[in-house]
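hiii so um. not sure if this is the right channel but i have a protein structure encoded as tokens and i wanna go backwards to a sequence. like what aa goes where. can anyone help
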């Protein structure tokens, strides 16, 4: 299944989650994502 939505990226996850909406596609680059950033992404429910 292919994900469809707007792609959004930012160097900092905390800035990215402020702009994300449900069904957006979040592009992140983390070796070790922290709990706050992970929960923020879960709450927004991005497409991918």
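sure thing!! here u go:
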């Amino acid at each position: 299944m292919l994900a469809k939505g707007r792609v959004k990226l930012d160097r900092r996850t905390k800035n990215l989650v402020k702009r994300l909406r449900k069904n957006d596609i979040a592009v992140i680059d983390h070796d070790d994502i922290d709990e706050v950033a992970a929960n923020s992404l879960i709450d927004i429910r991005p497409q991918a």
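oh and The helical segments are 13-19, 35-44.
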